[in-house]
Amino acid sequence: MASTIQVRVDDELKMKSDRLFKDLGTDTTAAIRMFLTQAVANNGFPFEIKKKNGKYNPYETMTEEEMLAKLEVSREHIKQGRCRDADEVISDMREKYGL
């Protein structure tokens, strides 16, 4: 026996998700079924959910301008000698943490 789930969503969200899933070769109903299957298989959400707390997250997506600015800072640090060889850093970490 199959059950029916009804969900109310914003019209624009529905339209965008329908278009996305069609481009991916499926439909919204199948995508929701996949989500539920993965949630059960993972015993939780099949993706990470975090509350934004306003702190810096180095893994957040950066704009091209932000990326270029960070690269420029890195180049300045290199010019000033404010960098270390990666092998030295790894060696120090292995020694410090017994790796």
Alpha carbon gap, first and last residue = 54 Å
Give the mean pLDDT. 88
Number of domains: 2
Which structural category do the helix and sheet elements fall into?
Answer: mainly alpha
Largest sheet: none
Q: What is the number of beta strands?
A: 0
Jot down its keywords.
mainly alpha, 2 domains, 4 helices, elongated, 57% helix, 99 residues
Q: What does the secondary structure layout of this molecule look like, with pairings?
A:
Elements: H1 11-23, H2 28-42, H3 64-79, H4 86-97
3D structure, described in words:
The chain has helices spanning 11-23, 28-42, 64-79, 86-97. The chain has 99 residues and is an all-alpha fold. It folds into two domains: 1-47; 64-97, no CATH class.
At a glance:
With 99 residues, this protein is mainly alpha-helical. It has four helices and no strands.
